[in-house]
């Protein structure tokens, strides 16, 4: 049996070089895209009216007559919830807005990010 050797010719080198340049270009494009996304994300955090630890901005999206109480809910039921969480050792403004700090406290106390009507009845 004859031993075969692998030889590189000019065509193979051009194809390999072209692939390497294409992959390098794609990698650079992807790196720049992610860098731009990160920059936009950090800019949105610093321009937020909330603290820098807040990832989402707050706006009242749900009335507190609907359950479960969740991020974006506003009203008197949320005030009762915040007062209860303050009794449990958290430091929250009792403003009736279910924002990131309230969500974090609910997660620590109840183990979930929302408060169902049954859970709310136990704290009232």
Helix content: 40-55%
CATH H-level superfamily title of the largest domain: PGBD-like superfamily/PGBD
Order of H and E elements: HEEHHH
Largest sheet: 2 strands, parallel
For this structure, the CATH topology of the largest domain is Muramoyl-pentapeptide Carboxypeptidase, domain 1
Q: What is the CATH domain class of the largest domain?
A: Mainly Alpha
Number of strands: 2
Q: What gap, in angstroms, lies between the N and C termini?
A: 89 Å
Weakly predicted, low-confidence segments? 47-54
CATH architecture of the largest domain: Orthogonal Bundle
Mean pLDDT: 81
**Main sheet strand line-up:** 1-2
Radius of gyration: 28 Å
Strand content: under 5%
How many structural units, i.e. domains?
2
Helix count? 4
Summarize the structure.
This protein has 124 residues and is mainly α. Helices cover 54% and strands 3% of the residues.
Topology diagram in text:
Blueprint (H helix, E strand, L loop, with lengths): L9 H37 L15 E2 L9 E2 L1 H12 L12 H11 L6 H7 L1
Parallel strand pairs: 1-2
């Amino acid at each position: 049996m004859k031993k075969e050797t692998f030889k590189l010719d000019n065509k193979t080198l051009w194809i390999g070089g072209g692939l390497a340049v294409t992959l390098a270009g794609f990698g650079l494009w992807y790196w720049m895209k992610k860098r731009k996304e990160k920059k936009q994300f950090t800019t949105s955090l610093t321009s937020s009216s909330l603290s820098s630890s807040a990832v989402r901005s707050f706006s009242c999206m749900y009335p507190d007559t609907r359950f479960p109480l969740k991020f974006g809910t506003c009203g008197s039921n949320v005030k009762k919830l915040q007062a209860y969480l303050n009794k449990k050792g958290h430091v929250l403004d009792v403003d009736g807005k279910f924002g990131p700090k309230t969500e974090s406290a609910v997660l620590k106390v109840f183990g979930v990010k929302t408060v169902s009507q049954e859970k709310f009845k136990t704290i009232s």
